[in-house]
Write a structure and sequence with these properties.
With 151 residues, this protein is mainly beta. It has one domain. It has helices at 17-25, 98-103; strands at residues 2-8, 29-30, 45-50, 60-64, 70-78, 119-120, 126-132, 139-145. Strands 1, 2, 3, 4, 5 and 6 form a 6-stranded mixed sheet that branches. The longest helix is centred in the first third of the chain and has 9 residues, at 17-25. InterPro entries: At4g02000-like, Zn_knuckle_CX2CX4HX4C. This is Zinc knuckle CX2CX4HX4C domain-containing protein. Residues 51-98 form the Zinc knuckle CX2CX4HX4C domain.
Amino acid sequence: MKFWVQVHNLPCSWLTSDVAMEIGDTLGEVIKSDNVSEMIGGNFIRVRVAIDTSQPLCRGRIICFDDNTQGFVSFKYERLPNFCYWCGMFSHDDKDCSLWLRSKGSLKVDDQQFGQWLRAPQFNPLKKMLWMSKASGVMLQVVIRVVYVYL
């Protein structure tokens, strides 16, 4: 399955298409985008990846930064279908999971390693604004693309 994956918790200087591609390579086959503005999402980067759905979803990665420190980047998936919150697999839901069935109901929701937090809201860089012209009294609708520049 192909997903847009949002990568969160990166330093501002790492919000680049090159970093998105490198991290995406660790998740599956990266589907290249010629439109860089599709990849930058404000405080996160996005990468389109074909993911092996026979494996659990990846919640994030530990990565090494330029100063030899490590940090955890978390992933959120856009348009994510139903999946099991116990094991992260797409093949079944929570009630049919072998982890849940073996526990005979002793597992608590707090024990789930996956959850709703892996679902990203759909990315939409276009914002609509309404402007009222004082001179003419005409209402104008303007569509703008929000672009974030980090210096």
